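Worked example

This section walks through a single chain of length 270. The input is the sequence exactly as stored; nothing has been trimmed or padded.
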Amino acid sequence: MLKKTDLWSEEDKRQAHLDSRIEQTQSAFFGFEKVAADEKVYKVRRHFDRVARRYDLMNTLLSFGIHYQWKRLSIRILNLKPGDHVLDVCGGTGDLSMMAGRYVQKTGLVVDYDINREMMLVGKDKINGTAFRDFIRFVQGDAEKVSFPDNSFDAALVGFGIRNVTRIEQGFEEMRRVLKPGGQLMCLEFSKPANRLFRRLYDIYSFYFMPLLGRLVVGTGQPYACLTETIRMFPLPEELAAILKRIGFTNVTYRSLTNGIAVIHHGTKA
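Given that input, the structure is written out below as C-alpha coordinates.
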Protein backbone atom coordinates (compact mmCIF):
# COMPACT_ATOMS: atom_id res chain seq x y z
CA MET A 1 0.00 0.00 0.00
CA LEU A 2 1.25 3.48 -0.85
CA LYS A 3 1.76 6.12 1.78
CA LYS A 4 0.25 9.58 1.84
CA THR A 5 3.74 10.97 1.47
CA ASP A 6 3.59 9.66 -2.12
CA LEU A 7 0.85 12.30 -2.69
CA TRP A 8 1.35 12.61 -6.46
CA SER A 9 2.47 9.25 -7.73
CA GLU A 10 5.55 8.68 -9.83
CA GLU A 11 5.15 7.75 -13.49
CA ASP A 12 5.77 4.07 -12.81
CA LYS A 13 2.92 3.97 -10.28
CA ARG A 14 0.59 5.84 -12.65
CA GLN A 15 1.40 3.29 -15.33
CA ALA A 16 -0.08 0.63 -13.07
CA HIS A 17 -3.39 1.87 -14.52
CA LEU A 18 -2.43 0.86 -18.06
CA ASP A 19 -4.31 -2.14 -19.39
CA SER A 20 -1.11 -3.99 -20.31
CA ARG A 21 0.20 -3.69 -16.73
CA ILE A 22 -3.12 -4.86 -15.31
CA GLU A 23 -3.09 -7.91 -17.58
CA GLN A 24 0.49 -8.72 -16.56
CA THR A 25 -0.12 -8.45 -12.83
CA GLN A 26 -3.85 -9.27 -12.67
CA SER A 27 -4.08 -6.44 -10.16
CA ALA A 28 -5.35 -2.87 -10.11
CA PHE A 29 -5.42 0.06 -7.72
CA PHE A 30 -8.49 1.22 -5.83
CA GLY A 31 -7.12 4.45 -4.45
CA PHE A 32 -3.73 3.54 -3.01
CA GLU A 33 -4.91 0.00 -2.27
CA LYS A 34 -3.71 -2.74 -4.60
CA VAL A 35 -6.51 -5.23 -5.30
CA ALA A 36 -7.20 -8.12 -7.66
CA ALA A 37 -8.23 -6.70 -11.04
CA ASP A 38 -11.63 -8.44 -10.99
CA GLU A 39 -12.30 -7.16 -7.46
CA LYS A 40 -12.07 -3.46 -8.31
CA VAL A 41 -15.45 -3.25 -10.02
CA TYR A 42 -17.20 -4.53 -6.88
CA LYS A 43 -15.35 -2.04 -4.70
CA VAL A 44 -16.37 0.78 -7.05
CA ARG A 45 -20.01 -0.32 -6.89
CA ARG A 46 -20.01 -0.38 -3.08
CA HIS A 47 -18.23 2.96 -3.02
CA PHE A 48 -20.97 4.70 -5.04
CA ASP A 49 -23.81 2.84 -3.33
CA ARG A 50 -22.70 4.53 -0.12
CA VAL A 51 -22.63 8.07 -1.50
CA ALA A 52 -25.30 8.07 -4.24
CA ARG A 53 -28.01 10.02 -2.40
CA ARG A 54 -25.60 12.75 -1.28
CA TYR A 55 -23.30 12.63 -4.32
CA ASP A 56 -24.52 15.86 -5.96
CA LEU A 57 -24.56 17.77 -2.68
CA MET A 58 -21.02 16.65 -1.81
CA ASN A 59 -19.74 17.62 -5.28
CA THR A 60 -21.13 21.11 -4.82
CA LEU A 61 -19.77 21.50 -1.29
CA LEU A 62 -16.32 20.12 -2.08
CA SER A 63 -15.85 22.19 -5.25
CA PHE A 64 -17.65 25.30 -3.94
CA GLY A 65 -19.96 24.90 -6.94
CA ILE A 66 -17.17 25.21 -9.52
CA HIS A 67 -17.86 21.73 -10.91
CA TYR A 68 -20.94 23.09 -12.68
CA GLN A 69 -18.76 25.57 -14.60
CA TRP A 70 -16.34 22.80 -15.55
CA LYS A 71 -19.18 20.62 -16.79
CA ARG A 72 -20.88 23.37 -18.81
CA LEU A 73 -17.60 24.24 -20.52
CA SER A 74 -16.84 20.59 -21.31
CA ILE A 75 -20.23 20.19 -22.99
CA ARG A 76 -19.85 23.43 -24.99
CA ILE A 77 -16.57 22.09 -26.43
CA LEU A 78 -18.54 19.31 -28.16
CA ASN A 79 -20.65 21.78 -30.19
CA LEU A 80 -23.68 19.51 -29.95
CA LYS A 81 -26.70 20.25 -32.11
CA PRO A 82 -30.37 19.23 -32.15
CA GLY A 83 -30.80 15.61 -33.18
CA ASP A 84 -27.39 14.39 -32.01
CA HIS A 85 -27.07 11.09 -30.16
CA VAL A 86 -24.81 11.26 -27.09
CA LEU A 87 -23.41 8.55 -24.82
CA ASP A 88 -22.58 9.68 -21.27
CA VAL A 89 -20.30 6.93 -19.90
CA CYS A 90 -20.18 6.64 -16.10
CA GLY A 91 -23.01 9.17 -16.28
CA GLY A 92 -24.20 8.53 -12.74
CA THR A 93 -26.68 11.11 -11.47
CA GLY A 94 -26.98 12.72 -14.89
CA ASP A 95 -25.55 16.25 -14.63
CA LEU A 96 -23.67 16.01 -17.93
CA SER A 97 -26.54 14.13 -19.57
CA MET A 98 -28.93 16.97 -18.78
CA MET A 99 -26.47 19.60 -19.96
CA ALA A 100 -26.03 17.69 -23.23
CA GLY A 101 -29.81 17.32 -23.45
CA ARG A 102 -30.24 21.09 -23.64
CA TYR A 103 -28.33 21.01 -26.94
CA VAL A 104 -29.64 17.84 -28.60
CA GLN A 105 -33.25 18.61 -27.58
CA LYS A 106 -36.22 16.31 -28.21
CA THR A 107 -35.04 15.28 -31.66
CA GLY A 108 -31.87 13.86 -30.14
CA LEU A 109 -31.00 11.20 -27.60
CA VAL A 110 -28.76 11.09 -24.53
CA VAL A 111 -27.90 7.76 -22.88
CA ASP A 112 -26.68 7.90 -19.28
CA TYR A 113 -24.64 4.68 -19.07
CA ASP A 114 -23.38 3.60 -15.66
CA ILE A 115 -22.59 0.42 -13.76
CA ASN A 116 -24.17 1.72 -10.55
CA ARG A 117 -27.95 1.46 -10.26
CA GLU A 118 -28.22 3.65 -7.16
CA MET A 119 -26.52 6.57 -8.92
CA MET A 120 -28.84 6.30 -11.91
CA LEU A 121 -31.92 6.16 -9.69
CA VAL A 122 -30.90 9.56 -8.33
CA GLY A 123 -30.55 10.78 -11.92
CA LYS A 124 -33.98 9.46 -12.86
CA ASP A 125 -35.51 11.31 -9.92
CA LYS A 126 -33.90 14.53 -11.18
CA ILE A 127 -35.44 14.32 -14.66
CA ASN A 128 -38.91 13.16 -13.58
CA GLY A 129 -41.41 15.86 -14.40
CA THR A 130 -39.09 17.55 -16.89
CA ALA A 131 -38.85 17.44 -20.68
CA PHE A 132 -35.59 15.50 -20.33
CA ARG A 133 -37.45 12.29 -19.52
CA ASP A 134 -38.54 12.08 -23.17
CA PHE A 135 -35.02 11.81 -24.59
CA ILE A 136 -32.62 10.90 -21.77
CA ARG A 137 -32.35 7.16 -21.19
CA PHE A 138 -30.63 5.38 -18.31
CA VAL A 139 -28.85 2.12 -19.13
CA GLN A 140 -26.95 0.05 -16.58
CA GLY A 141 -23.78 -1.46 -17.97
CA ASP A 142 -20.01 -1.85 -17.84
CA ALA A 143 -17.87 0.87 -19.46
CA GLU A 144 -15.46 -1.85 -20.62
CA LYS A 145 -18.26 -3.58 -22.57
CA VAL A 146 -20.61 -0.90 -23.88
CA SER A 147 -23.89 -2.52 -24.94
CA PHE A 148 -24.43 -0.53 -28.15
CA PRO A 149 -23.51 -1.27 -31.78
CA ASP A 150 -20.59 0.26 -33.64
CA ASN A 151 -21.04 3.79 -35.04
CA SER A 152 -24.12 4.63 -32.93
CA PHE A 153 -23.33 8.02 -31.39
CA ASP A 154 -22.27 11.50 -32.51
CA ALA A 155 -20.49 12.13 -29.20
CA ALA A 156 -19.27 10.12 -26.24
CA LEU A 157 -18.31 11.74 -22.96
CA VAL A 158 -17.13 10.74 -19.53
CA GLY A 159 -16.96 13.08 -16.56
CA PHE A 160 -15.03 12.22 -13.39
CA GLY A 161 -15.60 8.53 -13.98
CA ILE A 162 -12.91 6.98 -16.17
CA ARG A 163 -10.39 6.71 -13.34
CA ASN A 164 -12.80 4.30 -11.62
CA VAL A 165 -12.83 1.95 -14.62
CA THR A 166 -10.45 -0.96 -14.14
CA ARG A 167 -9.15 -0.99 -17.72
CA ILE A 168 -9.33 2.64 -18.79
CA GLU A 169 -7.88 2.03 -22.25
CA GLN A 170 -10.55 -0.56 -22.97
CA GLY A 171 -13.15 1.94 -21.78
CA PHE A 172 -11.88 4.55 -24.24
CA GLU A 173 -11.67 1.94 -27.01
CA GLU A 174 -15.32 1.10 -26.41
CA MET A 175 -16.25 4.78 -26.64
CA ARG A 176 -14.36 5.02 -29.91
CA ARG A 177 -16.09 1.90 -31.24
CA VAL A 178 -19.61 3.23 -30.67
CA LEU A 179 -18.81 6.66 -32.11
CA LYS A 180 -19.70 7.41 -35.71
CA PRO A 181 -16.81 8.42 -38.00
CA GLY A 182 -16.11 12.05 -37.14
CA GLY A 183 -17.73 11.59 -33.73
CA GLN A 184 -16.28 13.40 -30.75
CA LEU A 185 -14.89 12.21 -27.43
CA MET A 186 -14.79 14.39 -24.32
CA CYS A 187 -13.21 13.39 -21.01
CA LEU A 188 -13.44 15.66 -17.96
CA GLU A 189 -11.26 14.44 -15.11
CA PHE A 190 -9.37 15.62 -12.05
CA SER A 191 -5.63 16.17 -12.33
CA LYS A 192 -2.52 17.60 -10.71
CA PRO A 193 -2.54 21.35 -9.92
CA ALA A 194 0.22 23.21 -11.73
CA ASN A 195 1.37 25.61 -9.02
CA ARG A 196 3.44 23.97 -6.27
CA LEU A 197 2.09 26.07 -3.40
CA PHE A 198 -1.48 25.67 -4.61
CA ARG A 199 -0.86 21.92 -4.94
CA ARG A 200 0.31 21.73 -1.33
CA LEU A 201 -2.80 23.52 -0.10
CA TYR A 202 -4.92 21.24 -2.28
CA ASP A 203 -3.24 18.19 -0.71
CA ILE A 204 -4.08 19.40 2.79
CA TYR A 205 -7.65 20.15 1.73
CA SER A 206 -8.01 16.75 0.00
CA PHE A 207 -6.56 14.50 2.68
CA TYR A 208 -8.06 16.20 5.72
CA PHE A 209 -11.05 18.40 4.91
CA MET A 210 -12.73 16.19 2.27
CA PRO A 211 -12.95 13.04 4.45
CA LEU A 212 -14.09 15.18 7.39
CA LEU A 213 -16.92 16.67 5.34
CA GLY A 214 -17.78 13.18 4.10
CA ARG A 215 -18.19 11.98 7.68
CA LEU A 216 -20.45 14.95 8.47
CA VAL A 217 -22.66 14.80 5.36
CA VAL A 218 -22.57 11.17 4.21
CA GLY A 219 -21.72 9.46 7.49
CA THR A 220 -18.35 8.13 6.31
CA GLY A 221 -15.12 9.73 5.15
CA GLN A 222 -13.71 6.62 3.48
CA PRO A 223 -15.16 7.20 -0.01
CA TYR A 224 -13.66 10.69 -0.09
CA ALA A 225 -10.27 9.53 1.14
CA CYS A 226 -10.36 7.04 -1.73
CA LEU A 227 -11.39 9.78 -4.19
CA THR A 228 -8.35 11.78 -3.15
CA GLU A 229 -6.09 8.78 -3.74
CA THR A 230 -7.52 7.82 -7.16
CA ILE A 231 -6.85 11.34 -8.46
CA ARG A 232 -3.18 11.09 -7.54
CA MET A 233 -2.79 7.71 -9.24
CA PHE A 234 -4.40 8.85 -12.53
CA PRO A 235 -2.33 9.61 -15.67
CA LEU A 236 -1.25 13.24 -16.10
CA PRO A 237 -2.83 15.24 -18.96
CA GLU A 238 -0.04 14.63 -21.47
CA GLU A 239 0.01 10.93 -20.55
CA LEU A 240 -3.74 10.61 -21.07
CA ALA A 241 -3.49 12.48 -24.39
CA ALA A 242 -0.87 9.95 -25.52
CA ILE A 243 -3.20 7.07 -24.56
CA LEU A 244 -6.05 8.57 -26.59
CA LYS A 245 -3.82 9.02 -29.63
CA ARG A 246 -2.56 5.45 -29.34
CA ILE A 247 -6.13 4.16 -29.26
CA GLY A 248 -6.81 5.99 -32.52
CA PHE A 249 -8.37 9.34 -31.68
CA THR A 250 -7.20 12.26 -33.77
CA ASN A 251 -6.99 16.00 -33.10
CA VAL A 252 -6.46 15.24 -29.40
CA THR A 253 -6.24 18.35 -27.23
CA TYR A 254 -6.59 19.12 -23.56
CA ARG A 255 -7.42 22.19 -21.51
CA SER A 256 -6.58 22.73 -17.84
CA LEU A 257 -9.13 24.30 -15.51
CA THR A 258 -8.69 26.07 -12.16
CA ASN A 259 -4.89 25.75 -12.01
CA GLY A 260 -5.07 22.16 -13.26
CA ILE A 261 -7.46 20.71 -10.69
CA ALA A 262 -9.55 19.48 -13.62
CA VAL A 263 -8.68 18.87 -17.26
CA ILE A 264 -10.85 18.49 -20.38
CA HIS A 265 -9.55 16.14 -23.08
CA HIS A 266 -11.13 16.23 -26.53
CA GLY A 267 -10.60 14.02 -29.56
CA THR A 268 -12.22 12.85 -32.79
CA LYS A 269 -12.84 9.43 -34.31
CA ALA A 270 -11.30 9.44 -37.79
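What to look for: The chain has eleven helices and nine strands.
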